[in-house]
Amino acid sequence: MKLLRNLLIVLFCNHICAQDLKIVDAKISRELDFGPEIQKEWIIRDKAMKDLEENIKSWDQLTEIEHSVLKKWEKYMIVCGM
Length: 82
Description:
Layout: H1 2-20, H2 26-31, H3 36-55, H4 64-79
Helix pairs in contact: 1-3, 1-4
């Protein structure tokens, strides 16, 4: 479940960044200064991303629940036009 939590943090932060700031590429927005609130979100996202990189050697390691959540998130992103 920790992997699922970290996946959702990364996806949610990327989505919020792209959606709220109207910037599709989250990496670009990260290089700009949007104040302490956005920077705090990026710190949380970076920690989750690092944990994911350390713990996921392959997407095959994801559980059925994690795959299900990712599929639902993909559908949501398509509906939102992301």
